[in-house]
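re: ur question from earlier - yeah i can do the single chain one, its not a big deal. heres the input i used so u can compare w yours
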Amino acid sequence: MVIAHRGASYYAPENTFAAFDLALQLGVHHIEVDVHLTSDGHIVVIHDDTVDRTTNGLGLVTRHTLESLRGLDAGSWFGTEFEGETIPLFDEVLARYKGRLHIHTEIKGHSPYLSQQTADLIRKHSMEKQVTVTSFQQTQLEEIRAYAPELSTGWLVERTSDAIIKQAQAIGLTQLCPRADTITPGLVDRLHAQGFVVRAWGVSTEELMQRVVKAGADGMTVNFPDKLIAFLKRQKYLWK
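and the output i got, formated as tokens:
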């Protein structure tokens, strides 16, 4: 799986339609997005807890209303040609890419019921087979497994241990997602033997990208998906 991390975020401002549309143009079939909840209960696509880094605004996402967030520029920080890009609603992302992309949705926020509301929107668009929900937060994954067991789920982990594997099995997760620089052929074989899909994150260089592929992982999030596609084609790997 070639998963465009926050869209084609090496070339366009992360978590914007510019980055998602570019990923499509590059031939990608999977994107990764991050979700938070606004103060008035809307799910928006943004990575950080605050808007400071990726917009011209300030403060916690959860302290902003949707109207307030809509007024922010989410593109100019990356380049003047992206001026006017806005923070998307998760609902809009689902509607725009239904049938076109698989959407790996990371629950970043800590708002109560964010997992359930995320699942509700996925169900609204009948995209249960087109979305995988991931998180670093075990609690969020437990909540979504209880509320929407039909959804594929993945645990983003810094390190993989016996305890992590047992917890993931107990929760009923589909994927384990180790940090890329911890992935080895032995770890991939071990996780496959336990029934997990293995998806890497934190792929910061092309060299690390190639190591993850050669270790036998099932996919990765990557800011430069075109480079991963080119490598897979050269190596005659199957990709999707």
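The chain has a mean pLDDT of 97. not sure if urs matches, ping me
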